[in-house]
């Protein structure tokens, strides 16, 4: 792998296109397999973040057990009979995530995640978020994946080139307002173009959707930053050169997915083809 960090990021990003592309094209067992693998790796990373804290450290058996529970949750979600219950669970987790984010922001030195939340947080955070893919048709999957990837990439390079004032220094000291607005503008632009070419909603609806997904993705990024900073780690893992770990790559996606699914249940962006009934 080349030493140039930007080249590493680009090459890794291109390689990461292959699994979701295969899942979107073939769906069925291929989609389920990709999701199970991603959930297993991400859960392993998530629980490993707590390894240095005795109060929240999980032993190997518990890690493997929670990974198995994650796979079972995905299998249960595949029945597609509990959409609104699952969305309620997801947004309940959002409330916990928001509390943790602001709690850390107010008092980062004394911030501590309670031991009993660790396993439950991992299962709510990963399998229940990624199960949203099971309810979506190919066009919707492509849109959400592209929107979050563009948001992240545009924010990274805009912030790197422009710099300027920081958004939330106690949570993520490197993220700038320039990067935030750049990522948001790129996400909205892509969503509008994608929607006008392939969707069935008016342009303003695509603008609102792009804005909502970008804000959710930024919140997801901030939430993972709180986890890492409170635990004293830079990256969630080393699996993806130039990107860190699986969690570092999908943190925004985890929060954008339920936002899209909720929006699709209210407004038919793709008509009958947007989400599985």
Please tag this protein with its features.
mainly alpha; 11 helices; 277 residues; two-stranded antiparallel sheet
3D architecture notes:
The chain is mainly α and 277 residues long. It has one domain. Helices cover 70% and strands 3% of the residues. It contains eleven helices and two strands. The protein has a two-stranded antiparallel sheet. Strand 1 and strand 2 form a beta hairpin. Helix 8 packs antiparallel against helix 9. It is globular and about 50 Å long. The N and C termini lie far apart (43 Å). The model has no long low-confidence stretch (mean pLDDT 82).
First-residue to last-residue Cα separation:
43 Å
Dominant shape:
globular
Output the structural class: mainly alpha
The biggest beta sheet is recorded as: 2 strands, antiparallel
Helix content: 55-70%
By DSSP (H or I, 4+ residues per run), the number of helices equals 11
Strands of the widest sheet, in order across it, are 1-2
* Total domains: 1
Beta strands, count:
2
User: Radius of gyration from the CA trace?
Assistant: 18 Å
Order of helices and strands: HHHHHHHHEEHHH
In round numbers, the mean pLDDT is 82
Q: What fraction strand?
A: under 5%
Contiguous runs where pLDDT drops below 50 for at least 5 residues: none
* Oligomeric state of this protein: single chain
């Amino acid at each position: 792998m080349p030493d140039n960090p930007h080249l590493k990021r680009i090459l890794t990003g291109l390689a990461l296109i292959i699994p979701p592309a295969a899942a979107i094209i073939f769906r069925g067992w291929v989609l389920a397999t990709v999701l199970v693998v991603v959930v297993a790796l991400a859960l392993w990373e998530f629980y490993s973040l707590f390894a240095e804290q005795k109060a929240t450290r999980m032993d190997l058996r518990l890690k493997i057990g929670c990974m198995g529970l994650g796979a079972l949750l995905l299998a249960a979600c595949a029945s597609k009979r509990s959409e609104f219950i699952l969305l309620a669970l997801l947004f309940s987790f959002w409330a916990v995530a928001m509390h943790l984010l602001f709690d850390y922001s107010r008092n980062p030195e004394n911030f501590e995640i309670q031991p009993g939340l660790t396993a439950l947080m991992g299962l709510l955070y990963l399998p229940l978020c990624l199960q949203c893919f099971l309810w979506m048709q190919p066009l919707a999957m492509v849109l959400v994946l592209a929107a979050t990837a563009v948001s992240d990439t545009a924010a990274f390079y805009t912030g790197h080139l422009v710099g300027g004032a920081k958004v939330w220094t106690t949570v993520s000291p490197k993220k700038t307002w320039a990067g935030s607005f750049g990522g948001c503008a790129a996400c909205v632009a892509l969503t509008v173009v994608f929607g006008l070419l392939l969707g069935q909603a008016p342009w303003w609806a695509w603008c609102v959707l792009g804005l909502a997904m970008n804000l959710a993705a930024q919140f997801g990024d901030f939430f993972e930053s709180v986890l890492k900073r409170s635990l004293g780690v830079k990256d969630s893992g080393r699996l993806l050169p130039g990107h860190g770990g699986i969690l570092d790559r999908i943190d925004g996606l985890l929060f954008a997915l339920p936002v899209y699914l909720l929006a699709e249940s209210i407004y038919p962006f793709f008509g009958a083809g947007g989400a599985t009934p």
